[in-house]
Specification:
Layout (H helix, E strand, L loop, with lengths): L1 E8 L1 H4 E7 L7 E6 L8 H18 L4 E6 L2 H8 L2 H4 L5 H13 L5 E6 L6 H8 L6
Parallel strand pairs: 1-4, 4-5
Antiparallel strand pairs: 1-2, 2-3
Length: 135
């Protein structure tokens, strides 16, 4: 099982990041940090983009069991919502990101999306706010 703790920060150029662990005890730890494209203009779309990029990594690495965690409850609730609720009126960038996530999810045998408290997501949060060098 692979666990991704994802986060987004509008500071330092709209950075998304994640910490990747092989299990809940974090025996293996990898850090990823990228600056997303300019369509990220709010916190929700930034968090969804971080989740999307983590899913792309999971697919590229051919992981079969993945847990994606994020400290934005609205993002996790939206991803886990029934399809009819996802179709409600939303900004086009949010609809597009949900569409991308929904289309990547079936490519992983088992994937779960979980809310994690900001306190328990400190490592990813600090990474998005770091200047320059990674911790």
């Amino acid at each position: 099982m692979i666990i991704y703790n994802c986060d987004f920060s509008p500071k330092n150029g709209n950075v998304v990041a994640w910490i990747k662990k092989t299990n809940s005890k974090g025996k293996k730890r990898e850090i990823e940090r990228i600056a997303p494209t300019s369509f990220i203009n709010d916190s929700l779309s930034g968090e969804l983009f971080a989740i999307y990029i983590a899913l792309l990594d999971a697919i590229q690495c051919r992981y079969t069991t993945v847990i994606v965690r994020n400290d934005n409850k609205a993002a996790i609730d939206l991803i886990n919502a029934p399809k009819d609720r996802k179709k409600r009126k939303r900004k086009s960038n949010i609809k597009f990101l949900i569409y991308l996530i929904d289309n990547l999810t079936p490519r992983i045998k088992k994937v779960e999306f979980e809310w994690i408290s900001r306190k328990n997501n400190r490592e990813a949060d600090a990474l998005t706010k770091a200047n320059g060098d990674l911790p």
